[in-house]
Amino acid sequence: MTIQRIKSTDPVNIPGWSWQPFLDDAVTRLQSLNYQPYPVSDRFLQREDQTGSKSKPVPVTTATWACKTEKFRQVRAACVCAGSAASVLNFVINPDSSFDLPFFGGDLVTLPSGHLLALDLQPAIKTDEAHTNHVWSRLVPIFERWRDQLPYGGPIPEEAKPFFSPGFLWTRLPLGTEGDDLIESIVRPAFNEYLDLYLEIAAKAERVSTERSDSLLKGQRKYTDYRAEKDPARGMLTRFHGSEWTEAYIHSVLFDL
Ligand code: DBV
Questions:
Q1: Distance from the CA of 59 to the center of ligand 1, in angstroms?
Q2: What is the CATH number of domain 20-252?
Protein backbone atom coordinates (compact mmCIF):
# COMPACT_ATOMS: atom_id res chain seq x y z
CA MET A 1 0.00 0.00 0.00
CA THR A 2 1.38 3.40 -0.89
CA ILE A 3 0.22 6.67 0.54
CA GLN A 4 -0.75 9.35 -1.93
CA ARG A 5 1.49 12.39 -1.66
CA ILE A 6 -0.16 15.71 -2.50
CA LYS A 7 2.46 18.27 -1.50
CA SER A 8 6.21 18.03 -1.98
CA THR A 9 6.68 18.31 1.79
CA ASP A 10 4.36 15.39 2.56
CA PRO A 11 6.38 12.61 4.21
CA VAL A 12 8.08 10.10 1.95
CA ASN A 13 7.15 6.60 2.98
CA ILE A 14 8.53 3.86 0.76
CA PRO A 15 8.38 0.42 2.39
CA GLY A 16 11.88 -1.02 2.78
CA TRP A 17 13.70 2.12 1.63
CA SER A 18 17.03 2.06 3.45
CA TRP A 19 17.86 5.79 3.44
CA GLN A 20 14.71 6.88 5.27
CA PRO A 21 16.59 7.76 8.52
CA PHE A 22 18.88 10.14 6.61
CA LEU A 23 15.94 11.96 5.03
CA ASP A 24 14.18 12.09 8.40
CA ASP A 25 17.31 13.60 10.01
CA ALA A 26 17.48 16.23 7.25
CA VAL A 27 13.80 17.17 7.44
CA THR A 28 14.04 17.49 11.23
CA ARG A 29 16.97 19.88 10.80
CA LEU A 30 15.05 21.99 8.28
CA GLN A 31 11.94 22.24 10.44
CA SER A 32 12.99 25.37 12.32
CA LEU A 33 13.42 27.23 9.00
CA ASN A 34 9.66 27.30 8.50
CA TYR A 35 9.90 25.72 5.07
CA GLN A 36 7.24 25.90 2.37
CA PRO A 37 6.49 23.24 -0.25
CA TYR A 38 8.49 23.62 -3.47
CA PRO A 39 6.24 23.09 -6.47
CA VAL A 40 6.73 19.62 -7.98
CA SER A 41 4.22 18.29 -10.48
CA ASP A 42 2.22 15.18 -9.56
CA ARG A 43 4.00 12.88 -11.93
CA PHE A 44 7.29 13.51 -10.14
CA LEU A 45 6.04 13.45 -6.54
CA GLN A 46 5.85 9.71 -6.61
CA ARG A 47 6.26 7.35 -9.54
CA GLU A 48 5.85 3.59 -9.40
CA ASP A 49 6.97 1.07 -12.02
CA GLN A 50 8.45 -2.40 -12.25
CA THR A 51 11.94 -3.56 -13.05
CA GLY A 52 13.52 -7.02 -13.18
CA SER A 53 12.20 -9.76 -15.43
CA LYS A 54 8.63 -10.69 -16.39
CA SER A 55 8.79 -13.75 -14.16
CA LYS A 56 10.45 -11.90 -11.26
CA PRO A 57 9.22 -8.32 -11.34
CA VAL A 58 10.59 -5.91 -8.73
CA PRO A 59 8.51 -2.86 -7.77
CA VAL A 60 10.33 0.49 -8.14
CA THR A 61 9.36 3.75 -6.50
CA THR A 62 10.92 7.15 -7.06
CA ALA A 63 9.64 9.90 -4.77
CA THR A 64 10.61 13.55 -4.49
CA TRP A 65 10.56 15.53 -1.27
CA ALA A 66 11.15 19.27 -1.79
CA CYS A 67 10.84 22.59 -0.02
CA LYS A 68 12.01 26.19 -0.14
CA THR A 69 12.96 28.69 2.54
CA GLU A 70 14.06 32.32 2.62
CA LYS A 71 17.67 31.44 1.76
CA PHE A 72 17.19 28.18 -0.14
CA ARG A 73 15.73 28.38 -3.63
CA GLN A 74 15.14 24.64 -3.64
CA VAL A 75 15.87 21.80 -1.23
CA ARG A 76 15.11 18.47 -2.83
CA ALA A 77 15.51 14.80 -2.11
CA ALA A 78 15.27 12.19 -4.84
CA CYS A 79 14.38 8.89 -3.19
CA VAL A 80 14.67 5.72 -5.25
CA CYS A 81 13.78 2.27 -3.99
CA ALA A 82 13.94 -0.87 -6.12
CA GLY A 83 14.45 -3.51 -3.44
CA SER A 84 17.87 -5.14 -3.68
CA ALA A 85 18.38 -3.65 -7.18
CA ALA A 86 18.83 -0.08 -5.92
CA SER A 87 18.24 2.23 -3.01
CA VAL A 88 19.19 5.90 -3.37
CA LEU A 89 18.91 9.20 -1.56
CA ASN A 90 20.20 12.11 -3.59
CA PHE A 91 19.82 15.26 -1.51
CA VAL A 92 20.74 18.74 -2.73
CA ILE A 93 20.24 22.19 -1.22
CA ASN A 94 20.26 24.92 -3.86
CA PRO A 95 20.82 28.29 -2.19
CA ASP A 96 19.19 31.46 -3.43
CA SER A 97 21.89 33.33 -5.37
CA SER A 98 21.28 36.45 -3.27
CA PHE A 99 23.29 34.68 -0.56
CA ASP A 100 26.95 33.75 -0.86
CA LEU A 101 26.51 30.04 -0.18
CA PRO A 102 27.73 26.75 -1.63
CA PHE A 103 25.44 23.84 -2.49
CA PHE A 104 24.86 21.04 -0.05
CA GLY A 105 25.10 17.70 -1.86
CA GLY A 106 24.64 14.17 -0.64
CA ASP A 107 24.56 11.08 -2.83
CA LEU A 108 23.81 7.89 -0.92
CA VAL A 109 23.59 4.98 -3.30
CA THR A 110 23.16 1.25 -2.74
CA LEU A 111 23.51 -1.05 -5.75
CA PRO A 112 24.00 -4.82 -5.89
CA SER A 113 27.75 -4.09 -6.18
CA GLY A 114 27.88 -2.13 -2.91
CA HIS A 115 27.32 1.31 -1.40
CA LEU A 116 28.67 4.47 -2.98
CA LEU A 117 28.53 7.53 -0.75
CA ALA A 118 29.32 11.17 -1.49
CA LEU A 119 28.96 14.25 0.69
CA ASP A 120 30.11 17.77 -0.03
CA LEU A 121 29.51 21.50 0.27
CA GLN A 122 30.07 22.33 -3.37
CA PRO A 123 31.12 25.78 -4.56
CA ALA A 124 29.26 27.78 -7.22
CA ILE A 125 32.60 29.47 -8.08
CA LYS A 126 35.58 27.43 -6.99
CA THR A 127 38.16 30.08 -7.91
CA ASP A 128 36.53 32.81 -5.80
CA GLU A 129 38.07 32.94 -2.33
CA ALA A 130 35.33 35.17 -0.92
CA HIS A 131 32.94 32.36 -1.81
CA THR A 132 35.01 29.41 -0.62
CA ASN A 133 37.41 30.33 2.20
CA HIS A 134 34.94 30.77 5.04
CA VAL A 135 33.30 27.45 4.14
CA TRP A 136 36.44 25.41 3.57
CA SER A 137 38.16 26.52 6.76
CA ARG A 138 35.23 25.09 8.73
CA LEU A 139 34.57 22.05 6.51
CA VAL A 140 38.07 20.63 6.10
CA PRO A 141 38.63 19.69 9.77
CA ILE A 142 35.26 17.91 9.80
CA PHE A 143 36.11 16.18 6.53
CA GLU A 144 39.50 14.98 7.79
CA ARG A 145 38.02 13.42 10.88
CA TRP A 146 35.44 11.36 8.96
CA ARG A 147 37.68 10.58 5.99
CA ASP A 148 40.17 8.81 8.24
CA GLN A 149 37.45 6.35 9.25
CA LEU A 150 36.33 5.40 5.73
CA PRO A 151 37.97 3.77 2.72
CA TYR A 152 38.64 6.14 -0.21
CA GLY A 153 36.05 5.86 -3.01
CA GLY A 154 38.60 6.00 -5.83
CA PRO A 155 39.33 8.49 -8.62
CA ILE A 156 36.58 10.77 -9.92
CA PRO A 157 36.38 12.25 -13.44
CA GLU A 158 38.83 15.15 -14.03
CA GLU A 159 36.06 17.30 -15.51
CA ALA A 160 34.05 16.97 -12.26
CA LYS A 161 36.81 18.47 -10.12
CA PRO A 162 35.87 22.16 -10.58
CA PHE A 163 32.63 21.38 -8.78
CA PHE A 164 34.01 19.68 -5.67
CA SER A 165 35.38 21.22 -2.49
CA PRO A 166 38.48 19.97 -0.62
CA GLY A 167 35.97 18.49 1.84
CA PHE A 168 34.50 16.02 -0.64
CA LEU A 169 33.84 12.89 1.38
CA TRP A 170 33.70 9.94 -0.96
CA THR A 171 33.66 6.27 -0.12
CA ARG A 172 32.56 2.86 -1.33
CA LEU A 173 31.44 0.29 1.23
CA PRO A 174 30.56 -3.39 0.92
CA LEU A 175 27.01 -4.68 1.37
CA GLY A 176 26.32 -6.61 4.58
CA THR A 177 26.94 -5.91 8.24
CA GLU A 178 30.39 -4.38 7.79
CA GLY A 179 29.05 -1.69 5.45
CA ASP A 180 25.83 -1.25 7.40
CA ASP A 181 27.75 -0.66 10.64
CA LEU A 182 29.93 2.02 9.02
CA ILE A 183 26.86 3.69 7.53
CA GLU A 184 25.26 3.93 10.96
CA SER A 185 28.39 4.83 12.96
CA ILE A 186 30.24 7.07 10.47
CA VAL A 187 28.25 8.05 7.40
CA ARG A 188 25.07 9.08 9.23
CA PRO A 189 26.79 11.33 11.79
CA ALA A 190 29.02 12.71 8.99
CA PHE A 191 25.93 13.53 6.90
CA ASN A 192 24.39 15.32 9.87
CA GLU A 193 27.57 17.20 10.71
CA TYR A 194 27.95 18.41 7.11
CA LEU A 195 24.32 19.48 7.14
CA ASP A 196 24.56 21.20 10.54
CA LEU A 197 27.62 23.13 9.36
CA TYR A 198 25.84 24.10 6.15
CA LEU A 199 22.76 25.31 8.01
CA GLU A 200 24.92 27.27 10.45
CA ILE A 201 26.78 29.02 7.61
CA ALA A 202 23.46 29.69 5.86
CA ALA A 203 21.91 31.14 9.02
CA LYS A 204 24.70 33.74 9.17
CA ALA A 205 24.65 34.60 5.46
CA GLU A 206 23.50 38.08 4.52
CA ARG A 207 22.10 39.34 1.26
CA VAL A 208 24.75 40.30 -1.33
CA SER A 209 24.68 43.02 -4.00
CA THR A 210 22.89 42.47 -7.30
CA GLU A 211 26.22 42.30 -9.14
CA ARG A 212 27.52 39.68 -6.75
CA SER A 213 24.29 37.74 -6.97
CA ASP A 214 24.48 37.75 -10.78
CA SER A 215 27.95 36.25 -10.74
CA LEU A 216 26.95 33.62 -8.17
CA LEU A 217 23.96 32.75 -10.36
CA LYS A 218 26.24 32.25 -13.36
CA GLY A 219 28.38 29.84 -11.33
CA GLN A 220 25.28 28.03 -10.06
CA ARG A 221 24.08 27.59 -13.66
CA LYS A 222 27.38 26.00 -14.71
CA TYR A 223 27.20 23.61 -11.78
CA THR A 224 23.57 22.70 -12.39
CA ASP A 225 24.06 22.25 -16.14
CA TYR A 226 26.99 19.96 -15.45
CA ARG A 227 25.03 17.87 -12.97
CA ALA A 228 22.06 17.58 -15.33
CA GLU A 229 24.24 16.65 -18.27
CA LYS A 230 26.35 14.08 -16.38
CA ASP A 231 23.76 12.75 -13.95
CA PRO A 232 25.08 9.28 -13.05
CA ALA A 233 21.52 8.17 -12.30
CA ARG A 234 20.32 8.76 -15.85
CA GLY A 235 20.84 5.12 -16.92
CA MET A 236 19.17 3.70 -13.84
CA LEU A 237 16.19 6.07 -13.93
CA THR A 238 15.69 5.46 -17.65
CA ARG A 239 15.61 1.71 -17.07
CA PHE A 240 13.10 2.13 -14.27
CA HIS A 241 10.80 4.85 -15.61
CA GLY A 242 11.58 5.41 -19.31
CA SER A 243 13.50 8.15 -21.04
CA GLU A 244 10.76 10.76 -21.48
CA TRP A 245 9.96 10.81 -17.76
CA THR A 246 13.65 10.67 -16.76
CA GLU A 247 14.77 13.59 -18.95
CA ALA A 248 11.86 15.71 -17.75
CA TYR A 249 12.64 14.75 -14.14
CA ILE A 250 16.34 15.63 -14.47
CA HIS A 251 15.75 18.97 -16.20
CA SER A 252 12.55 20.20 -14.56
CA VAL A 253 12.95 18.87 -11.00
CA LEU A 254 16.42 17.61 -10.04
CA PHE A 255 18.48 20.31 -11.75
CA ASP A 256 15.90 22.93 -12.66
CA LEU A 257 17.76 26.25 -12.31
N1 DBV B 1 23.16 10.90 -8.50
C2 DBV B 1 22.56 12.11 -8.74
C3 DBV B 1 21.15 11.90 -8.68
C4 DBV B 1 20.91 10.57 -8.37
C5 DBV B 1 22.20 9.94 -8.28
C6 DBV B 1 20.17 13.00 -8.89
C7 DBV B 1 18.46 10.34 -8.39
O8 DBV B 1 23.16 13.15 -8.97
C9 DBV B 1 22.45 8.58 -8.03
C10 DBV B 1 19.67 9.83 -8.20
N11 DBV B 1 24.93 8.41 -8.23
C12 DBV B 1 23.65 7.91 -8.36
C13 DBV B 1 23.74 6.58 -8.87
C14 DBV B 1 25.09 6.31 -9.07
C15 DBV B 1 25.81 7.48 -8.67
C16 DBV B 1 27.25 7.60 -8.77
C17 DBV B 1 22.56 5.67 -9.13
C18 DBV B 1 25.71 5.03 -9.55
C19 DBV B 1 25.79 5.02 -11.03
C20 DBV B 1 26.22 3.66 -11.51
O21 DBV B 1 27.27 3.16 -11.06
O22 DBV B 1 25.49 3.11 -12.31
C23 DBV B 1 28.78 11.78 -6.64
N24 DBV B 1 27.70 9.74 -7.61
C25 DBV B 1 28.04 8.68 -8.38
C26 DBV B 1 29.43 8.83 -8.72
C27 DBV B 1 29.87 10.01 -8.15
C28 DBV B 1 28.74 10.56 -7.47
C29 DBV B 1 31.26 10.62 -8.21
C30 DBV B 1 30.24 7.85 -9.51
C31 DBV B 1 30.09 8.28 -10.93
C32 DBV B 1 30.64 7.28 -11.86
O33 DBV B 1 31.12 6.23 -11.42
O34 DBV B 1 30.52 7.59 -13.06
N35 DBV B 1 26.67 12.88 -7.08
C36 DBV B 1 28.09 12.97 -7.24
C37 DBV B 1 28.39 14.09 -6.33
C38 DBV B 1 27.30 14.56 -5.72
C39 DBV B 1 26.24 13.81 -6.19
C40 DBV B 1 29.75 14.58 -6.11
C41 DBV B 1 27.22 15.61 -4.73
C42 DBV B 1 27.73 15.45 -3.54
O43 DBV B 1 25.10 13.99 -5.82
A1: 22
A2: 3.40.1500.20
